[in-house]
C-alpha cells in the first residue's frame, strides 16, 4: 500500500489496511490544512490569459480595409471597465462605441507611399464570445493603389508581453505576416505592382549605400586591398571578385538557404581584415593574389551583409527586387570608397614612391591592429568593451 493511498484513507476516516502507513489525527489536520491552502492558491489567476491582438489589412482598389480583434481584458484596462466581461454585452458595446473607436483607432496608423491615411467611421464593436474579444473594423480610402503601405501600431503599451499579429492581404492573397510588440511597432508592405517595385528600389538602394558607408569593418577590408595600389584593371578585378562572392552568400542567407550564426561570421570578418593587412606586409614582387583574397573572404562578408538585411523585414512578395536593390546600393557605396581611396593613394605615389610605400606599410599595420581589436571584442566581449 502506498503512502498516497494511506493519506486518502486517513482523510476519509477509513481504517488502515495491512501494511499501510497510518496517520494520526494531528497529521490528518495538517494535511487537510495543506490541501485547503493548495486549493485556494489554485483559484483562477488574474493574469492576462491571451496577451494578443489580431489586425487584418486588405489592400484593394480604392481602400485599405482594416479588421481588428482585441481581447476584452486589454480594452477594459485602458477604458477602466471592471469587470472586463461587461464588454461582451451588446448594449454596453453600443453605449461605449465612441470610446472604443477612439481608443483603438488612435493606435492603428496607416501610410500609403509615405502619406498618412485617414480612417472612415469605425463599425459598431462586435463581441467575439469564444475568444473573449471584441471585433471592430474600418476603411482607409485610397486615391490609387499604393506601392507601399506602412502600419505603425502599439496596441496596449501597459502590457510588456502584448503582441499584435498582423496579416496584410493584397486583394484576396495573403502577402505579408508580422508580429508587432514594444520592440517593433512598424511594418511595411510592398505591393506586387510597378509602384511597389519602385518603392522597394527607393528603400533598399539607399539602405545598401548607408550600410557600406557606416560599416567600418567592410570598408577597412576594402581599403586594405587597395593599399598596394595597382592598375585600374587590377583594382577593378579585386572589387568585382569581392562583389561576386558577397552577392552569392547574401542571396543564400536572405533566402534562408544557408545561415551561419553571427557569432561565427563577425569574428571571421575581423580575421579577414587581419589577413589582408598581414598579406600586404609579406607580399613581394610575385603574383598579385588580391582578387582571390577578395573572392574568398567576400563569401564571409556576404553573410555579414545578410545579418543587416534580415533585420529590415524583407518583403516576401518582392524578395528578388529587395535583394537586387540592397546589393546595388552596397556596390554604389563601395564604388565611391574605392574611387576616393584609390585616387588618393595614386596621387601620393605620383608625388613620392617612397611615401606611397611607407603609407602602405603603416596602413597595413593599422588594418591588422583594427582587425585584431574587432576579433578580440567579438569573441570575448560580444556585448562591447566598456
Structural summary, described in words:
The chain is α+β, with helices and mostly antiparallel strands. The protein has three domains: 39 residues, no CATH class; 140 residues, no CATH class; 184 residues, no CATH class. The protein is 54% helix and 16% strand. The strands form two sheets. Strands 5-6-2-1-8-9 form a six-stranded mixed β-sheet. Strands 4-3-7-10 form a four-stranded antiparallel β-sheet. β8 and β9 form a beta hairpin. α8 runs parallel beside α10, α8 runs antiparallel to α11 and α11 runs antiparallel to α12. It is elongated, with a radius of gyration of 32 Å. It starts with a helix and ends in a 6-residue tail after the last helix. The N terminus is likely disordered.
List the helices and strands and how they pair.
Elements: H1 3-11, H2 25-41, E1 52-60, E2 63-71, H3 72-79, H4 90-95, H5 97-105, E3 109-112, E4 115-116, E5 126-128, E6 133-141, E7 148-152, E8 163-170, E9 173-180, E10 186-190, H6 194-214, H7 216-226, H8 232-254, H9 262-282, H10 290-310, H11 319-351, H12 353-380
Parallel strand pairs: 1-8
Antiparallel strand pairs: 1-2, 2-6, 3-4, 3-7, 5-6, 7-10, 8-9
Helix pairs in contact: 6-11, 7-9, 7-11, 7-12, 8-10, 8-11, 9-10, 9-12, 11-12
Amino acid at each position: 500500500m502506498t503512502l498516497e493511498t494511506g493519506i486518502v484513507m486517513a482523510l476519509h476516516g477509513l481504517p488502515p489496511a495491512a501494511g499501510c502507513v497510518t496517520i494520526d489525527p494531528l497529521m490528518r489536520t495538517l494535511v487537510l490544512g495543506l490541501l485547503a491552502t493548495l486549493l485556494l492558491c489554485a483559484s483562477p489567476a488574474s493574469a492576462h490569459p491571451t496577451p494578443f491582438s489580431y489586425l487584418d489589412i486588405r489592400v484593394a482598389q480604392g481602400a485599405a480595409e482594416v479588421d481588428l480583434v482585441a481581447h476584452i481584458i486589454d480594452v477594459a484596462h485602458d477604458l477602466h471597465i471592471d469587470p472586463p466581461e461587461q464588454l461582451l454585452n451588446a448594449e454596453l458595446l453600443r453605449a461605449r462605441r465612441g470610446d472604443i473607436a477612439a481608443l483603438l483607432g488612435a493606435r492603428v496608423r496607416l501610410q500609403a507611399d509615405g502619406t498618412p491615411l485617414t480612417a472612415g467611421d469605425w463599425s459598431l464593436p462586435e463581441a467575439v464570445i469564444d475568444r473573449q474579444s471584441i471585433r471592430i473594423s474600418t476603411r482607409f480610402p485610397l486615391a490609387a493603389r499604393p506601392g507601399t503601405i506602412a502600419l505603425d501600431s502599439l496596441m496596449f503599451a501597459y502590457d510588456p508581453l502584448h503582441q499584435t499579429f498582423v496579416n496584410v492581404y493584397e486583394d484576396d492573397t495573403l502577402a505579408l505576416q508580422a508580429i508587432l510588440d514594444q520592440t517593433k511597432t512598424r511594418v511595411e508592405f510592398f505591393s506586387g505592382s510597378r509602384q511597389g517595385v519602385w518603392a522597394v528600389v527607393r528603400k533598399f538602394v539607399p539602405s545598401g549605400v548607408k550600410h557600406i558607408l557606416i560599416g567600418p569593418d567592410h570598408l577597412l577590408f576594402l581599403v586594405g586591398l587597395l593599399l598596394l595600389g595597382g592598375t585600374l584593371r587590377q583594382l577593378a578585378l579585386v572589387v568585382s571578385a569581392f562583389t561576386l562572392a558577397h552577392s552569392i552568400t547574401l542571396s543564400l542567407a536572405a533566402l534562408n538557404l544557408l545561415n551561419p550564426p553571427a557569432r561565427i561570421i563577425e569574428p571571421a570578418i575581423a580575421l579577414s581584415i587581419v589577413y589582408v593587412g598581414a598579406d600586404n606586409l609579406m607580399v613581394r614582387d610575385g603574383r598579385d593574389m588580391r582578387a582571390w583574397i577578395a573572392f574568398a573572404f567576400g563569401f564571409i562578408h556576404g553573410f555579414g551583409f545578410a545579418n543587416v538585411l534580415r533585420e529590415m523585414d524583407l518583403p516576401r512578395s518582392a524578395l528578388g527586387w529587395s535583394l537586387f536593390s540592397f546589393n546595388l546600393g552596397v556596390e554604389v557605396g563601395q564604388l565611391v570608397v574605392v574611387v576616393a581611396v584609390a585616387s588618393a593613394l595614386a596621387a601620393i605615389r605620383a608625388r613620392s614612391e617612397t611615401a606611397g610605400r611607407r603609407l602602405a606599410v603603416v596602413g597595413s599595420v593599422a588594418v591588422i591592429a583594427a582587425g585584431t581589436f574587432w576579433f578580440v571584442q567579438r569573441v570575448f566581449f560580444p556585448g562591447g568593451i566598456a
